[in-house]
TrEMBL record, chain B:
Transcription regulation is among the record's keywords: no
One Pfam family linked to the record: ABC_tran
Record organism: Peribacillus cavernae
Protein name: Sugar ABC transporter ATP-binding protein
Domain of life: Bacteria
CC terms in the record's Gene Ontology section: plasma membrane
Keyword Lipid metabolism: no
Single GO molecular function: ATP hydrolysis activity
Location of the protein in the cell: Cell membrane
Signal peptide start-end: none
Classification of source organism: Bacteria, Bacillati, Bacillota, Bacilli, Bacillales
Limits of the ABC transporter domain: 9-245, 249-493
Length: 330, 494
């Protein structure tokens, strides 16, 4: 073998400046979020109140949970437009199950399983049907919403089951923090673990980065993609269950247009819709970034139509910043 | 012979730094009218960086560019195009869905009243450009339906139509079969006779000697030498490029190979392959020669489970059933495909992730792996194979061809593969790294592995222990090492 004086692998240099720079590029969203909180607290004295903060946490938990599922699909290079409809379907189904007297915990598990199967359907159509994810989930967006209306059979169903309500939208020992926030934190923890520490998570990135290379490297790509859609379905179902509990009502009208909010959160969180990129924490931060901005606009009394314009602009700016940062790195 | 020619373009004391790397320093380079100048050097020597500066993709940090006597600032690709500098990359920049004519005229379709495209004129002009080049082609064909050789012609036609004065060809012959190479070389010579300045980048040294007037050699971002080709020979050029001599190598060993590892019987596919039978022995390097389209790539893809086939296969005497690449990998059979960027590497992932992607399963419990262990193993492999990376987390996209190939070898070693199948093991890899890849192959068989090598380069297959020659989907001959000769192989290939 060639005698080689070059260093084949330089030892990592731990210069202080370098590590600060690395920290900034890695956690720019967190920094941005902190700045946003500071700015908002100057704009409105109602912002940094206990009630408002508790409200922000609660309101954005559902979006964040669904966004985590979406992120998984987006990492494989896909997209799941059906999450809002799945959430509504979960809502209606859980209400009917509880109405029939099924145990609340069994209902929750059963509904999440069924929603995983709904997601599985998406995955099957994408992998074995070889239909593009956008088209598949655009179709199931209508199908699942339609099923939700069919199951609802007319009127809204009120839910009185205490266990159900306290698990999914109850108080916790920490004042002002409700169970959805805890559920989000647990889900986030699991997702960070899956995406960083498991072979499945690693394969998702490989599939999104280059699916043919992943296949020839032995990744069971169809199985992995189907699993990602199933998980997205289950989490959309969980989101729907939480909404149901918060309003004590099952309804097919829930989560209209949520797919777009969720995709916005994932994209603001730096994931690429081309696949292969994205982090769990960032997707949640993305959701909260949008949520906080919406909150401050509400507090300052900006009307809802201008809010829509501002929200759209923020998505564009956020994505622009992310791509600029990525380009600079390259 | 070229001294009297006018200098078209001159790059003076060009320097370019990337974070942590001096890609180019103080490099002079000139292109004269009506000459072919070859740019040689190992991967990472700075050839691509030079050409990217010329075509406006990078801005130089130091130095100046003088084009036809005037200092120019090529700040973006548009500027280069307007000046008449065209670069033909290895990855062609054609739109597969558009026709030949549309691709040639892309960006300035001839127009009639109100901006309506003048299709008739476009077709006629496209035909004219191609005929000037000495090619006849249906200009209404979708470019995506053309073979790679013809696509290249279209790309060159596009440059000529844009009135290019300098044409840079980056590894133009790498993806081509032999007869197409000859046609391309004829075309390049024709362009020279029309007064264009041509920069020819190639790892294939015979071509460099065949067509170039001058050679500029770069090494580690610095100019080694520029001299007339007639003053050089192969050995001297290699010495200039790598700073050492590369002797003729042998792949595999002279030992008798007795233990059968893989045996293939009656392998057929629906499209091309017909009743393929062969054995692979322990410690052996088996070469497969054949023209593009002879079925060599199809054969190894079928064995690897990448494409469906029917066959009776045995591995170490036990029946082997391979339906997917996963099955093959689990049995210790690994494919290193020809197109590494498309079929083997996830370019956006780190070097480490590309090494461990396949083997990680073996080192995980319930799908959970140990990150620290992964890094340790990766570091060890990188060291063992001498992969030149700035760190394990370096993005694979930024590595040279040789280092990318080493990553894939590392991947399969990590996965404890017993049979490595190389499809064009050294395509796009420079001379120095080539020798290292050969060494790795030898080391692998010495440790008890078996290797199949497919190559378009005859010298490469002639280094192997034994050779199968394929033509039209069949194995037409098997030649033991003692009886190797180029004539014999070529005779069966056609």
């Amino acid at each position: 073998m060639k005698v080689n004086q070059e260093t084949t692998l330089s030892t990592p240099s731990f210069s202080f400046q370098h590590s600060i720079l690395k920290f900034i590029t890695k956690s720019y969203l967190l920094i941005f979020l902190c700045l946003l909180v500071i700015v908002c607290s100057f704009i409105s004295d109602k912002f940094l109140t206990f009630n408002n903060l508790s409200n922000i946490l609660l309101q954005n938990s559902v979006i964040s949970i669904i966004a985590l599922g979406q992120l998984m699909v987006v990492i494989t290079g896909g997209i799941d437009l059906s999450v809002g409809s799945i959430a509504a379907l979960a809502s209606v189904l859980s209400a009917s199950l509880l109405g029939m007297g099924v145990d609340p915990i069994v209902s929750i598990i059963l509904v999440m399983l069924l929603m995983a199967i709904a997601g599985l359907g998406n995955g099957l159509a994408v992998t074995y049907g070889k239909i593009t994810p956008f088209v598949v989930t655009l179709a199931t967006l209508t199908i699942y919403r339609g099923l939700a209306y069919i199951f609802q059979v007319g009127s809204l169903v009120t839910i009185e089951d205490r266990t159900f309500l306290s698990i999914l939208a109850g108080k916790t020992i920490i004042g002002g923090v409700y169970t959805p926030v805890i559920i989000l934190l647990i889900t986030l923890g699991i997702f960070i673990f899956i995406l960083r520490m498991t072979t499945f998570g690693r394969r998702l990135y490989a599939i999104g980065g280059n699916s043919e290379a992943a296949r020839l490297a032995g990744a069971p790509i169809n199985r992995d993609i189907i699993t990602a859609y199933a998980i997205s379905g289950a989490l959309a179902g969980l989101g729907g269950l939480i909404m149901t509990a918060r309003l004590s009502t099952g309804s097919a009208l829930y989560a209209q247009g949520y797919e777009l909010d969720v995709i916005a959160a994932v994209v603001v969180g730096g994931a690429s819709l081309m696949g292969g990129k994205g982090f769990a924490l960032n997707a949640v931060l993305g959701a909260f970034l949008i949520g906080i901005i919406r909150n401050i606009l509400n507090l300052t009394g900006v009307a809802s139509y201008p809010q829509m314009v501002i929200q759209g602009l923020i998505i564009l700016v956020a994505v622009l910043l992310t791509t600029l940062a990525a380009r600079k790195k390259a | 012979m070229t001294d009297s020619h006018e200098v078209l373009l001159e790059m003076r004391s060009i320097g370019k730094n990337f974070p942590g790397v001096k890609a180019l320093s103080n490099v002079d380079f000139s292109i004269r009218k009506g000459e072919i100048i070859a740019l040689c050097g190992e991967n990472g020597a700075g050839k691509s960086t030079m050409m990217k500066i010329l075509s406006g993709i990078y801005k130089p940090d130091a130095g100046e560019i003088v084009f036809q006597g005037e200092a120019v600032h090529i700040t973006k690709p548009d500027v280069a195009q307007k000046l008449g500098i065209a670069i033909i990359h290895q990855e062609l920049s054609l739109v597969p869905e558009l026709t030949v004519a549309e691709n040639i005229f892309i960006g300035d379709y001839p127009q009639k009243f109100l901006g309506v495209v003048d299709w008739r004129k476009m077709r006629k002009n496209a035909q004219a450009v191609l005929e000037d080049m000495g090619f006849k082609m249906d200009v209404d064909q979708r470019v995506g339906d053309l073979g790679i050789a013809k696509q290249q012609i279209v790309e060159i036609a596009k440059a000529l139509h844009k009135k290019a004065k300098v044409v840079i060809l980056d590894e133009p012959t790498a993806p081509l079969a032999n007869q197409d190479v000859d046609r391309l070389i004829d075309l390049v010579l024709k362009l020279r006779s029309e007064g264009l300045g041509i920069v020819y980048i190639s790892h294939r040294l015979p071509e460099v000697f065949q067509i170039s007037d001058r050679v500029t050699v770069l090494k580690d971002g610095q100019l080694v030498s520029t001299c007339d080709t007639k003053d050089l020979d192969r050995d001297r050029l290699i010495k200039l490029m790598v700073g050492r001599e590369v002797s003729n190598m042998r792949l595999g060993s002279v030992d008798n190979h007795e233990t059968k590892v893989l045996s293939v019987r009656g392998l057929s596919t629906s499209s091309l392959l017909e009743d393929i039978n062969f054995d692979l022995y322990k410690g052996e390097v088996l070469g497969i020669a054949g023209l593009v389209g002879s079925g060599r790539t199809e054969l190894v893809r079928a064995i690897f489970g990448a494409d469906p086939c029917t066959a009776e296969m045995e591995l170490n005497g036990k029946p082997l059933s391979v339906k997917t690449p996963r099955d093959a990998i689990n049995q210790g059979i690994a494919l290193l495909p020809e197109d590494r960027k498309e079929q083997a590497l996830v370019l956006g992932m780190s070097a480490l992730e590309n090494i461990t992607i396949s083997g990680l399963n073996n080192f995980s419990k319930f799908g959970i792996f140990n990150k620290r262990k992964e890094e340790e193993d990766g570091r060890e492999l990188v060291k063992k194979l001498q992969v030149r990376v700035s760190g394990l987390s370096q993005e694979t996209r930024t590595l040279s061809g040789g280092n990318q190939q080493k990553l894939i070898i590392a991947r399969w070693l990590y996965n404890r593969a017993k049979v490595l199948i190389f499809d064009e093991p050294t395509r796009g890899i420079d001379v120095g790294a080539k020798a290292e890849i050969y060494n790795l192959i030898n080391q692998f068989v010495k440790e008890g592995g078996s290797v199949i090598v497919i190559s378009s380069e005859l010298p490469e297959v002639l280094m192997c222990d034994r050779l199968l020659v394929m033509a039209r989907g069949k194995i037409v001959n098997e030649i033991p090492h003692e009886e190797f000769s180029e004539e014999k192989v070529i005779q069966y290939m056609f």
